[in-house]
């Protein structure tokens, strides 16, 4: 009986070590994302784009689901749209929390683009630079969660040359009241059209806000819970065995 118990104990220990080794490998799934901008310099009223791509992976073949947050200065930039690339689904964007989600049927390997995000430049920041970042990644392949670090890119924002010329003309053309009045009227009409366009865009984005990502990203947590339960039961079994043996020796 004693020999059989020792053999069972050895088998249990081997199983526990094997399961612990498998769990350690699971937490090493990782990927590196990259955020690149189409241009390093832009002017007010320009449309700029940044592209999110998968640069490398660790212990996985690729990724199939991406859920993350887009961060930008709303006083400098206005979100316009988000475009899917390389067979990814049309991204669902929530303007309230600035999060998006996209997926594809199979995993995509490293070295390929995922989405392109477009912005309109509204104003010039104090230091003439603005940063766009993507954070809070929730990424998976078809089975496992994948660890991903935040990414960012910086763009230089310049004041339009035309705006500088208009400022100089305003200071020099004090005698041409009629022309100035006409220019002011044109600027008012343009501002009104921009306000209408912004309102329409806001309405379109608002319709999409409540559709964000009721997506279920595969989790590896269930297997970890089962492992913990098995280990606890094994510990109880081993402790009971030694308690039984101790009481038997006392008798």
What would you say this structure looks like, in words?
The chain has helices spanning 2-26, 161-172, 177-209, 221-250, and strands at residues 30-37, 41-43, 47-58, 63-71, 77-84, 92-94, 99-108, 112-121, 129-140, 145-148, 151-158. It has 251 residues and is α+β, with helices and mostly antiparallel strands. It has a domain at 28-158 and 210-222: Immunoglobulin-like. Strands 1, 2, 3, 4, 5, 6, 7, 8, 9, 10 and 11 form an 11-stranded mixed beta sheet that branches. Helix 1 (2-26) packs antiparallel against helix 4 (221-250). The two termini are 17 Å apart.
Task: Write a brief caption for the model.
With 251 residues, the protein is of the alpha+beta class.
Provide the descriptors you would attach to this structure in a database record.
single chain, 251 residues, alpha+beta, Immunoglobulin-like
N-to-C span: 17 Å
CATH class of the domain at 28-158 and 210-222: Mainly Beta
CATH topology of the domain at 28-158 and 210-222: Immunoglobulin-like
Coarse structural class: alpha+beta
- State the share of residues found in helices, binned by percent: 25-40%
Major beta-sheet overview: 11 strands, mixed
Point out poorly predicted stretches.
202-217
Look at the structure and give the mean pLDDT.
79
Please indicate the percent range of residues in DSSP E strands (runs of 2 or more).
Answer: 25-35%
Determine Rg (CA atoms, Å): 30 Å
Q: What general form does the structure show?
A: elongated
CATH architecture of the domain at 28-158 and 210-222: Sandwich
Order of helices and strands: HEEEEEEEEEEEHHH
Number of helices: 4
How many β-strand stretches?
11
């Amino acid at each position: 009986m004693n020999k059989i118990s020792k053999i069972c104990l050895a088998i249990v220990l081997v199983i526990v070590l094997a399961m612990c080794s498998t769990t350690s490998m699971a937490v090493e799934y990782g990927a590196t994302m990259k955020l690149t901008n189409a241009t390093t310099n832009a002017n007010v009223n320009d449309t700029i784009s940044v592209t999110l791509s998968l640069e490398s992976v660790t212990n996985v073949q690729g990724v199939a689901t991406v859920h993350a947050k887009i961060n930008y200065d709303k006083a400098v930039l206005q979100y316009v749209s988000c475009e899917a690339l390389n067979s990814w689904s049309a991204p669902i964007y929530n303007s309230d929390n600035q999060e998006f989600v996209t997926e594809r049927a199979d995993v995509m390997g490293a070295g390929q683009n995922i989405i392109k995000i477009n912005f309109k430049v509204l104003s010039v920041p104090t230091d003439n630079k603005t940063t766009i970042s993507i954070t809070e990644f929730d990424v998976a392949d078809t089975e496992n969660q994948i660890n991903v670090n935040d990414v960012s890119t910086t763009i230089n924002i310049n004041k339009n040359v035309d705006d500088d010329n208009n400022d100089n003309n305003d200071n020099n053309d004090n005698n041409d009241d009629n022309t100035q009045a006409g220019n002011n009227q044109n600027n008012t009409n343009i501002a009104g059209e921009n306000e209408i366009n912004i309102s329409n865009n806001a309405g379109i984005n608002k319709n999409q806000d409540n559709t964000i990502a009721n997506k279920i990203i595969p989790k590896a947590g269930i297997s970890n819970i089962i492992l913990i339960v098995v280990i606890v039961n094994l510990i109880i079994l081993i402790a009971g065995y030694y308690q039984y043996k101790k009481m038997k020796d006392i008798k």
